[in-house]
Amino acid sequence: MSWILILAVACGTPEPAVAPVPTPDAAPAEAPAPVASESKRWAFPVQEGWTEEAVKSKMRMAQFALPKAEGDPEDASVIVYFFGEGGGGSIDANFQRWAGQFVVEGEADPMKAAKFARVERDGAVLHNMKISGKFIAETRPGSGDRVDKDAWRMLATIVETDGGPYFVKLTGPEKTVQKWASSYDAFLAAAGPS
């Protein structure tokens, strides 16, 4: 009888597989729809001059094109990601990954070149990051293929709410992002519980 018990203890049971936490730049292709009670959902109203686009992923709540500034090669984009309560990974992990999408001249660690701010309002906490440099993000998460765009900028905000965090990113050519920076601030200021 005791040898059966010893054998069972020695063999053990395999640990259950743990699914990776989806992140704003690495959402699973067929992820379940985000969940949050309607009373806790936030709305992000479109700003004047922005063009609302069809979302390209179930993890994207909204997506906008912002017309390019004169002399810039392309438009900028604003994307709002939502993964439901507790989803999307930590603030630090997201900021580390987003900063890692840039090469900043004279700085080995792009996080040291990024600027951060924290704002509280409407029962939420907004964590902001700004960074500029050469944009080298993967064309698709996990593809290994990267873009190579000089003079690029990102304004990123993680909005912590009681219904879950929202991940908001304005990314594009430096002058275009600068052109729309105050509009991005107004976008965040207008966002709130729906």
Write a structural description:
With 194 residues, the protein is an alpha+beta fold. The chain has one domain: 3-Layer(aba) Sandwich (Protein Transport Mog1p, Chain A). The chain has 4 helices and 10 strands; from the N terminus they run αββββαβαββββαβ. Strands 2, 3, 4, 5, 6, 7, 8 and 9 form an 8-stranded antiparallel β-sheet that branches. Strands 1-10 form a two-stranded antiparallel sheet. It is globular, with a radius of gyration of 20 Å. The model is unreliable at 1-23 and 26-39 (pLDDT under 50).
Secondary-structure element string: HEEEEHEHEEEEHE
CATH class: Alpha Beta
The SS-based structural class is alpha+beta
Distance between the termini: 63 Å
How confident overall, as mean pLDDT? 84
CATH topology: Protein Transport Mog1p, Chain A
Helix proportion = 10-25%
Compute the number of helices. 4
> How large is the share of residues in beta strands?
25-35%
CATH architecture: 3-Layer(aba) Sandwich
- State the fourth-level CATH superfamily: Mog1/PsbP, alpha/beta/alpha sandwich
Estimated radius of gyration? 20 Å
Largest sheet: 8 strands, antiparallel
Number of domains: 1
Poorly predicted segments: 1-23, 26-39
Shape: globular
Number of strands: 10
